[in-house]
Write a structure and sequence with these properties.
single chain, mainly beta, four-stranded antiparallel β-sheet, globular
C-alpha cells in the first residue's frame, strides 16, 4: 500500500498500491469490501476524492487518470489519456468540473472530467514536473520540476505568467503554510 484516504462517512477508507489496484476497506471490521475497485496497468501513484464525495480520481505510472464511482464500485468512463509518462499528481480546480495533473513528461495538463478531454494546451517544464499546488484564487497554479524551476501558471489562459524561479538544485516540494493565504513557501 502506498497511500490511503478516508471516505466522508468516516467508516471506510480507500487505499492504492504498487499492485496496480485501489481497494475499499471497512474500518470497523478491518476487512476489504468486495473486489479491488480499480486496476491500472502499472503502479497507482495516488488518488483523491472529488467534491461530490461519490467519485475518486486516481493516477498511475501507466500515464492515465481514471474516475471511479464509489457507489457502483466501477470505473466511470474511459481512462483519461494524454500524458506520455507517469502521472505524479493531480488537484481539482475550484469552480470547475476539472483537474490539473502533472507528469514525468514535463507537462501539466488541464482536464474536463465530464468529457475526459484535455482543456487548452499542456503547460510545459523542461523536465519532469514533481508537484503543483493551486493558489487561493483558484485560477493560478505553482509548479516545480526537476528542471530546477518554480513556475506560475494561469489555468484559465493555459499559459505561464511571471518568471521562472531558478533554484540551485531540483525543487522537491512546496507547501502553503497553515492559516496563511498569501501563497506557498519553498521547502526543498
Amino acid at each position: 500500500m502506498t497511500g490511503a484516504l478516508l471516505l466522508p462517512c468516516g467508516k471506510q477508507a480507500l487505499s492504492w498500491s504498487l499492485d496496480k489496484t485501489l481497494r475499499l476497506w471497512d474500518l470497523e471490521t478491518a476487512k476489504q469490501m468486495g473486489e479491488p475497485l480499480a486496476r491500472h496497468e502499472d503502479f497507482v501513484n495516488g488518488a483523491l476524492l472529488l467534491a461530490d464525495g461519490k467519485r475518486v480520481l486516481s493516477w498511475s505510472e501507466d500515464g492515465t487518470l481514471r474516475l471511479w464511482d464509489l457507489e457502483t464500485e466501477r470505473q466511470a468512463g474511459w481512462p483519461i489519456v494524454g500524458h506520455e509518462l507517469a502521472i505524479y499528481g493531480a488537484v481539482p480546480l475550484k469552480d470547475r468540473e476539472g483537474v490539473l495533473s502533472w507528469s514525468g513528461d514535463g507537462t501539466l495538463r488541464l482536464w474536463n472530467l465530464e468529457t475526459g478531454q484535455q482543456v487548452g494546451t499542456p503547460l510545459r517544464h523542461e523536465e519532469s514536473v514533481l508537484g503543483a499546488l493551486l493558489l487561493p484564487d483558484g485560477k493560478q497554479v505553482l509548479s516545480w520540476s526537476e528542471d530546477r524551476t518554480l513556475r506560475l501558471w494561469d489555468t484559465e489562459k493555459s499559459q505561464q505568467v511571471g518568471v521562472s524561479l531558478l533554484q540551485e538544485n531540483a525543487v522537491d516540494r512546496c507547501a502553503a503554510p497553515a492559516g496563511r493565504k498569501t501563497g506557498p513557501v519553498l521547502v526543498g
